[in-house]
């Protein structure tokens, strides 16, 4: 068994033990597993294959401060490992390119080098004179625009006074996205660094299924982007999930109606909610099928915290709601014996046996006098 395979199995086993300890709320075991994971050296490919970044990343907000600190320590250490591994890979590739280019260039002999140096001396003197003229023409008191030698001096000054290797070209979009996705693979989300860009179908160069309709194809792309923002899954799985969701919604609507667009928009908003990473992960990993997801209501798609808040609000409203009370009616058929007013309310209750008439309770709204009769 190779070292990479054994390390992959080790990380998978530790992640499984971490999940079990979290479910059983065994804090001592959580700390032990996190310490073991901190000692494992990883790279981007290994993290994407095992999904360890997401498992450990969730524990950074754990209610126990010790576990949260340990999880942050593991994530911080893994980020350093990923950056170091990428730097080594980039250095190896550049060294290989230099050696390849150097092997293709023949080395001149001693006699040839001496002869070429003698031939280059007059050229160097000429270039030196041209560079001096160019520097003189670039002064404020000189009229370089009208000088006939300024055009010829420019390439000489470029050759003698400027080194092209001193200016480093900016990172391309693909290189920037590569380093960003590497850090996202460690932490499991893109909230740690402001410069980390979310994954998209364009950055992944994903091959999305084509339906022949531009609107439907755009909906598939938007669904892909909503699921891929902080996911470590491969682009093929994400494209399959996005196409499945779109197909079900299109079959339900029957056409590109307004209801179809509204439903797709609602699903995308719920999928890319930063406070609801569990929904994205469950959809991508298949814990929630696309058929089940398309039947879920907005309340069912809500995050665990939001669902708990909704239940708490419901219980509070139920507790604060007015309980069942007797129904009182206003009438003018009774006359108060104290103030002689006929503004009264009354209600009836069965206070005796069932075959007896009900008892009527009357209250005067003017003086609050109360009486009853059967």
UniProtKB/TrEMBL annotation:
Gene Ontology annotations for the cellular component aspect, listed alphabetically: nucleus
Q: Where is the TFIIS N-terminal domain?
A: 9-85
Q: Which Gene3D superfamilies match?
A: 2.20.25.10, Conserved domain common to transcription factors TFIIS, elongin A, CRSP70 (1.20.930.10), Transcription elongation factor S-II, central domain (1.10.472.30)
Domain named TFIIS central is located at: 215-329
Please state the span of the N-terminal signal peptide per the UniProt entry. none
Question: What InterPro entries has UniProt attached to this entry?
Answer: TF_IIS-typ, TFIIS/CRSP70_N_sub, TFIIS/LEDGF_dom_sf, TFIIS_cen_dom, TFIIS_cen_dom_sf, TFIIS_N, TFSII, Znf_TFIIS
| Protein keywords | DNA-binding, Elongation factor, Metal-binding, Nucleus, Protein biosynthesis, Transcription, Transcription regulation, Zinc, Zinc-finger
GO-annotated molecular function? DNA binding; translation elongation factor activity; zinc ion binding
Where does the record say this protein resides? Answer: Nucleus
Locate the region Disordered: 88-190
UniProt keyword annotation of Cytoplasm present? no
Report the record's Gene Ontology biological process terms: regulation of mRNA 3'-end processing; transcription antitermination; transcription elongation by RNA polymerase I; transcription elongation by RNA polymerase II
Q: What is its main location?
A: nucleus
**Residue ranges of every copy of the TFIIS-type domain listed in the record:** 332-372
Instruction: Note the PANTHER family from the entry.
Output: IP08861P-RELATED, TRANSCRIPTION FACTOR S-II ZINC FINGER DOMAIN-CONTAINING PROTEIN
Q: What does this protein do?
A: Necessary for efficient RNA polymerase II transcription elongation past template-encoded arresting sites.
Record-given protein name: Transcription elongation factor
């Amino acid at each position: 068994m190779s070292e990479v395979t054994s390390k992959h199995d080790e990380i998978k086993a530790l992640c499984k033990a971490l999940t079990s300890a979290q479910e059983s709320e065994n804090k001592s075991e959580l700390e032990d597993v996190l310490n073991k994971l901190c000692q494992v050296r990883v790279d981007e490919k290994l993290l994407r294959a095992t999904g360890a970044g997401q498992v450990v990343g969730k524990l950074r907000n754990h209610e126990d401060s010790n576990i949260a600190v340990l999880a942050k320590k593991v994530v911080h250490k893994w980020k350093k490992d990923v950056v170091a591994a990428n730097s080594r890979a980039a250095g190896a590739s550049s060294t290989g390119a230099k050696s390849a280019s150097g092997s293709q260039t023949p080395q001149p002999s001693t006699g040839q080098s001496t002869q070429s140096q003698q031939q280059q001396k007059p050229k160097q003197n000429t270039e030196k004179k041209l560079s001096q003229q160019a520097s003189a023409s670039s002064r404020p008191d000189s009229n370089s625009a009208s000088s006939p030698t300024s055009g010829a001096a420019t390439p000489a000054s470029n050759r003698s006074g400027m080194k092209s290797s001193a200016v480093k070209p900016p990172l391309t979009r693909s290189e920037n996205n590569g380093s960003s996705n590497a850090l996202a693979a460690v932490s499991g989300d893109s909230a740690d660094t402001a410069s980390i860009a979310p994954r998209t179908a364009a950055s992944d160069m994903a091959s999305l299924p084509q339906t022949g309709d531009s609107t439907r194809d755009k909906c598939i792309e938007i669904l892909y982007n909503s699921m891929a923002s902080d996911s470590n899954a491969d682009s093929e799985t994400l494209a399959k999930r996005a196409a499945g969701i779109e197909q079900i919604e299109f079959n339900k609507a029957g056409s590109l109606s307004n209801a179809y667009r509204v439903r797709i928009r609602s699903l995308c908003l719920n999928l890319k909610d930063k406070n609801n990473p569990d929904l994205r992960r469950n959809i991508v990993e298949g814990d929630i099928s696309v058929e089940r997801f398309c039947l879920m209501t907005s309340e069912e798609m809500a995050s665990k915290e939001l669902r708990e808040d909704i239940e708490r609000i419901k219980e509070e409203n139920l507790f604060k709601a007015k309980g069942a009370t007797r129904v009182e009616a206003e009438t003018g058929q009774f006359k108060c014996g104290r103030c002689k007013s006929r503004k009264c309310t009354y209600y009836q209750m069965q206070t005796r046996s069932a075959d007896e008439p009900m008892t009527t309770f009357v209250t005067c709204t003017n003086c609050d006098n109360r009486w009853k009769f059967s």
